[in-house]
Structures are given as C-alpha cells and as structure tokens.
Amino acid sequence: MTSATPIKDCYFCRVAAGLADPLIYENRSFVALFDTNPVNPGHALVIPRRHVVSLFELNETEQSDYFDAILGVRQVIESTDLASLYRSMLVREDLSERPKDHIEGVLELPFLGNPPDAYTVGNNDGRMAGRSIDHLHVILLPRYEGDVEDPRGGIRNVIPDRANYHRHAHPGVRADRA
C-alpha cells in the first residue's frame, strides 16, 4: 500500500484515511467515493491515498494503479442502484449540513436509472484549471444521451469561446463529421 502522510486540514486526506464519506472502491494507491455534489448520476472521485497535488506527482506504483482504479470505479458505477444511492444521501446524517440541491437535481433527471452512454474523465490540475481542493482527485463523470444539448467538444467547453473547432471545418468536410 502507498504510504499516506495526511495533511491535517485536507478533506481528501481524511477521505483516503476512511474518516469521511463512504468509499466505493480502493486499491493500494487510490480510493474512490461518489461525489455528494453530483453533476450526473454516478459522478465519482478517484483520490490517491498519498497527499499529492498534481497528477504529474504520481510515483510509478501510483501510475500503475491509476487505470485499475478508473476501471474499478466504472464497474461500481455501472452496478450501483444510483436512484437508491441518492435517496440515501438525502438522509445521511454526515451530510445534514451540506446543500442537497445537486442530489435533488440528479434524482429528477430523466436518464437516472439508465446505464451511462459514455464517460468524461478529468482532472482540474491546479487552481487555474478550476481545482478547489489541493489534493489530486480525478473525476469520473458518467455521460448520458441528452445530458447536454450538444456534447461535441467535450472538455474543450471549459473555455466556451474557443471550444467550437467544428466551425473551421475544411471545405468539403461537413462540420458534424470533423
């Protein structure tokens, strides 16, 4: 197991130590949990046990375990009754002080109960990338047909004015095929 030197005030160090939020997956280098502010059903976080800030700080063992963790969490997502999960989150005592609007919103989605059609796997690696907790956490976000009007461009849409590369398609190439 990768040694963990927790940082006192780091929420994800507490998660990795089993002191916050139930774990849904673990291997020697990573743990995972369902996000309590879900964007879509099954939204999960994969967190290294060791306190590292950046994906680029992972050692060889952690790099080796990274994809095992992603694949393992995907299996958990696809085998979990997500409607029951979110209904139980609404009444979890440890979440009583947290806002519930994201959970309630996911419970109203028409595709709740459907298997994911795709996944977005991401990491906000640094504050300028949008990170809010300085402990690496990889987002595994199930995607469903209809969850956004036009998913083309995917993660590129974090900078909306520069995301649409389809508008510059070469003559003779349809933009929807580029």
Topology:
Layout: H1 11-16, E1 25-26, E2 30-34, E3 44-48, H2 60-79, H3 82-91, H4 101-107, E4 118-122, E5 138-143
Antiparallel strand pairs: 1-2, 2-3, 3-5, 4-5
Describe it.
The protein is an alpha+beta fold and 178 residues long. 24% of the residues lie in helices and 13% in strands. It has helices at 11-16, 60-79, 82-91, 101-107; strands spanning 25-26, 30-34, 44-48, 118-122, 138-143. A five-stranded antiparallel β-sheet has the order 1-2-3-5-4. A hairpin with a 3-residue loop joins strand 1 and strand 2. Helix 3 runs antiparallel to helix 4 (101-107). The longest helix is centred in the middle third of the chain and has 20 residues, at 60-79. The mean pLDDT is 89.
The unreliable regions are none
Helical content class: 10-25%
The biggest sheet, with number of strands, parallel, antiparallel or mixed sense and barrel status, is: 5 strands, antiparallel
Q: Roughly what is the average pLDDT, rounded to an integer?
A: 89
Radius of gyration: 18 Å
* Category by helix and strand content: alpha+beta
Keyword list:
single chain, 178 residues, alpha+beta, five-stranded antiparallel sheet, 5 strands, 24% helix, globular
Summarize, please.
The protein has 178 residues and is an alpha+beta fold. The chain has helices at 11-16, 60-79, 82-91, 101-107, and strands at residues 25-26, 30-34, 44-48, 118-122, 138-143.
